């Protein structure tokens, strides 16, 4: 055999009985079949065997299986990011002429997709008050096919009465999807509370180090799998096996990180509540957060992200000055990693309140709590 051919022969030369504690990283687009009769093109790789790298490798399917196991799902699909997860859900459960409901406190890109791509596909997405609870029944139409929940809400942190929304939705045959990223799929049991589809941006807590982009979509039953699977295939939602490997490693330390993040975030939130320049703290575990009683009822804990609102006599320019003077907190949009972040939302308006540029969202990382409080103190002094 010519040396050129030898170099291209994929037959393994080394022993193949190696086992370790880490999931191997499988990279590949082409799947090699034993014979022609075995050739298939099927997204159901977990059930029917591998057919094409686009639909997953042993690395990505291992991550999917572990997320499904933790969430109690029938099956989980791993996608390139949280926004891809949102798109997969919309396109699987809505079609031209459909009506969907999304809380006005939802993740900004969800609302942007509703106003952009979904509108272009003749899918009407109507915003609703996240605290509506069972009264959402009045918003459900004959063509409503999907209701989104996000609890807590983005930035303003409203806790939703998910079981009440689910009951109203299911009475009308409507599916309920939940963005469960805040709870990392573990602090709120989506399927025990009746949700049909639970998604996460694995970029946040599962990845945990601000260095990967992944999302997950989990479904409670086989009917959901059959709705999601064909769209997953048609959209070509391939993921990086290297990112999946990092996420698998992140799962191993998730419990430790969440425990420390919860304690540190609560310490800082309670400290902020005592500061004279702060009007209110929006942390789910505190009574000042809208829907706090629902958090007590439905959640098993809190995580690292929360917001606070400056007092009315502080203007937007002073808030920006506060942010710019932070030294340990970095200015950034994402959260869930090991570094503390801060960002102001100068244009954030809710139907019930105009924050006038005075609302700041924090992500508490793994730094020493006293150092973080000292950083906030010195930034407060620049505007006090």
Describe the 3D structure:
This protein has 384 residues and is of the alpha/beta class. The chain folds into two domains: 20-248, Aspartate Aminotransferase, domain 2 (3-Layer(aba) Sandwich); 254-381, Aspartate Aminotransferase, domain 1. 35% of the residues lie in helices and 16% in strands. The chain has helices at 3-8, 45-48, 58-71, 82-93, 108-120, 162-171, 222-235, 241-273, 292-298, 316-324, 369-381, and strands spanning 75-79, 99-103, 124-128, 144-150, 175-179, 197-200, 215-219, 278-282, 305-310, 330-331, 341-344, 349-350, 353-354, 359-363. The strands form three sheets. It has a seven-stranded mixed β-sheet, sandwiched between helices. Strands 8-9-14-11-10 form a five-stranded mixed β-sheet, covered by helices on one side. α5 (108-120) links the parallel β2 (99-103) and β3 (124-128). α3 (58-71) packs parallel to α8 (241-273), α4 (82-93) packs across α5 and α4 crosses α7 (222-235). The longest helix is centred in the last third of the chain and has 33 residues, at 241-273. The chain starts with a helix and ends with a helix.
Please count the helical segments.
11
User: How many domains in all?
Assistant: 2
How far is the N terminus from the C terminus? 79 Å
**Low-confidence regions:** none
Number of DSSP-assigned strands: 14
What is the H level of CATH, i.e. the homologous superfamily of the largest domain?
Type I PLP-dependent aspartate aminotransferase-like (Major domain)
The CATH architecture of the largest domain is 3-Layer(aba) Sandwich
- Major sheet size, sense and barrel closure: 7 strands, mixed
Strand content: 15-25%
Category from helices, strands and their pairing: alpha/beta
The amount of helix comes to 25-40%
Order of strands across the widest beta sheet?
Answer: 1-7-6-5-4-2-3
**How large, in whole angstroms, is the Cα Rg?**
23 Å
Q: Would you state the CATH class of the largest domain?
A: Alpha Beta
